[in-house]
Amino acid sequence: MLIGLLVILIAIWLVLFITKGRFLKTPFERVAAAVSGRQVNVSGDFQLYFAPIDIRFVAEGLTMSNPAWASSPELLTAGRIETRVAPLSLLFGKPRLRWLELADAKIALEWNADHSANTWTFDADAAPLILPRIDRGSLDATAISYRDPQMQLRAALDFASIVSSDAKIDGAVRFTGSGQLRNTPFKLRGALLSPNDTMSRGKNRLALQLDTAHDRIDVGGTLPGLAEIEGVPLEVSARGRNAAELLGIIDIAIPDTRSYRVNAVLVKRGRSYRFTEMAGTFGASDIAGRFIVAAGGPRIHIDADLETRTLDIIDAAPFIGYNPDTLAAHGLQAAAAQTGAAPARLLPNANLRAESLRAFDADVRYTVARLRSKSVPVSDVAATLKLDNGLLTLSPFGFTMARGKVSSDIAIDWRRMPARTRYDIRLGVTPLSQLLSGFGVEESGTNGTIKGRIELVGDGDTLHTSLGSANGRIAFIIPKGTFWTRNVQLAELDIGTFVQKMFEGKLKVPVRINCGLVAFTVRNGAAAADPILIDTTKNVILGRGGFNFASERMDLAFNADGKKFSLLSAQSPVRVGGTFADPSLDVITPELLGRAGAGLGLAVAAFPPAAILAFVDVGDAKSTACAPVLAGARASGQRTTGGKPRDDVGDGNATKPVRKKFLGIF
């Protein structure tokens, strides 16, 4: 029986060797199809025999089909496959290929729409395809394509020719390719830096570089297998001209940035991508922290903790719609014009991409230690941002400005068209000396403070249109404090008191402000003084007029009425006009010219010294009751110290300046 069995085996070996096993092509196709569940065909030469001990397999024109749902009909097409397999390795389930030659091959790897199946796993219970150990190999003109409809990713790779011997590959296995992620095309190149370990199912050191039109991404790391990235830390670095373009590839909308460079460690777990140890720069600012991108729900969700040590004010400009590069190179007005705002406008008219903001959700915590600015000292910025199905909230959002605390809650509802924005901005008690120091006002001798609140609601998809349609109230309260006489008297144009103090050497004697209120009622973007009222120990300063967010024009007049007699008072309305971009200050007003004319008339009619009568202030101003002022009451609620309603502060709709009375004539 043993001899008979041996004779049979020798006969089979001899038949296979003589015929090269070509007659087994059809059985091979049938068995391979049954095992894989795919259609397998060999259109050219086929060989399967023992030579002399190893199993030799040759197939030309081999194709293996993909599942019906795949976009590519074949998983594998190969011009020629030739290999020799160690027979005993098959018995132990660890195939060992002593030799593999693969030429003119194309491999199509693809996921289905819901990620429940792929083309390289042959049935639901089977493990993904694992490469066997290959002692020697040759790879020529081989390409691999990859498609993931859920990530909207397509890629095609071309491998350089590879020749190995004794299970060793000299040098790296390099590849190039191209693809498209969502709507962004890219090119890539990379290498397997440890191909010998990879071929023996060992670790795979991978280096990959992707280039879009304006961005470069480098990925490096050591994978436990050929394409096993699950749970593996990868070093990622990216640089480019605008981080908004990079994140826009996956439909995540952020404000524009200047050129950026950032490094992080990426770990993929399921459909969650965790970026940690992030550090980098954008423009003249730094950024650090961590964030997670989760793609498992109906929309992408971002959870992030970010921090910046120093934020340059130019890099902060995109948060309200300005292009930072234009702002840095050409100034604020040019940056506003670039957004579509009219000439000589400052408020940006850039659309904040509502559709993109409805495409993902976010929970972001962001802190800034210091804002680099020439005018206003800002520090300790802390913002909590939440984006939920198109509803964007910044709450709380606070910072320290000139030693005063600003806290705010801002909500933009992109679920309605146009978007509705609610602004609630609160300024805590802030030293005026610090607040105004950046604008050239001296601090010494000034200990006054200011606090205030802005409450507005507007509709529009841009900052300009939102404020241009806003309704609400703006109010800033000035409690009791002292100011330099020089600053105050010049502001009030009381030349007589100023000259008197100068000759008496008392120019730096502080003037006390009892209370003050600068408030506006805003209707459809138009803000009217309601009221502007500042009470000092010597004067009552009143204001009329307002400004318009839509046209960005201003028409304000300030007038100081003396409480005491002044011989040389040129007090008359000081007008602030023009636009936000080009304001004008008019101190030679028609009222002042009228006084000069009256003085000249008196000089001609009587005698020259009578001209001075036109500039006499009899000091009839009524002192202000500070309680309504400090409560931020509207003009209708203001009172004198005697309790009588004030009739000189308007009704919140006045546009004409207050006229200074002179002896009951003007």
Concise synopsis of the structure shown:
With 666 residues, the chain is an alpha+beta fold. Among the domains are: 14-121 and 128-216, no CATH class; 473-666, no CATH class. The chain has 15 helices and 34 strands.
Structural features, described:
With 666 residues, the chain is an alpha+beta fold. Among the domains are: 14-121 and 128-216, no CATH class; 473-666, no CATH class. It contains 15 helices and 34 strands. It has a 34-stranded mixed β-sheet that branches. α7 (324-330) crosses α8 (332-338). The radius of gyration is 40 Å and the shape is rod-shaped. Residues 198-202, 488-493, 595-616 and 654-666 have low confidence and may be disordered.
Which features characterize this protein?
single chain; 34-stranded mixed beta sheet; alpha+beta; 666 residues
Number of strands: 34
Distance from N terminus to C terminus (CA atoms, Å) equals 138 Å
In angstroms, what is the radius of gyration?
40 Å
Q: Structural class, judged by helices and strands?
A: alpha+beta
- Beta-strand content bin: 35-45%
User: Which stretches of 5+ consecutive residues score pLDDT under 50?
Assistant: 198-202, 488-493, 595-616, 654-666
Mean pLDDT: 78
| Multimeric state | single chain
The number of helical runs is 15
Main sheet record:
34 strands, mixed
Q: What is the topological layout?
A:
Layout: H1 2-19, H2 25-36, E1 40-42, E2 46-50, E3 55-65, E4 74-85, H3 87-91, E5 96-110, E6 133-134, E7 137-140, E8 142-148, E9 153-159, E10 162-165, E11 168-169, E12 173-181, E13 184-192, H4 195-199, E14 204-211, E15 215-223, E16 234-240, H5 243-248, E17 260-269, E18 272-282, E19 285-294, E20 300-312, H6 313-316, H7 324-330, H8 332-338, H9 354-357, E21 360-372, E22 378-388, E23 391-401, E24 404-413, E25 420-431, H10 432-437, E26 449-459, H11 463-468, E27 471-478, E28 481-484, H12 485-492, H13 495-504, E29 510-523, E30 526-536, E31 539-548, E32 554-562, E33 574-578, E34 583-586, H14 590-605, H15 626-630
Parallel strand pairs: 5-6, 5-7, 5-8, 20-21
Antiparallel strand pairs: 1-3, 2-3, 3-4, 4-5, 7-10, 8-9, 9-12, 10-11, 12-13, 13-14, 14-15, 15-16, 16-17, 17-18, 18-19, 19-20, 21-22, 22-23, 23-24, 24-25, 25-26, 26-27, 27-29, 28-29, 29-30, 30-31, 31-32, 32-33, 33-34
Helix pairs in contact: 7-8, 12-13
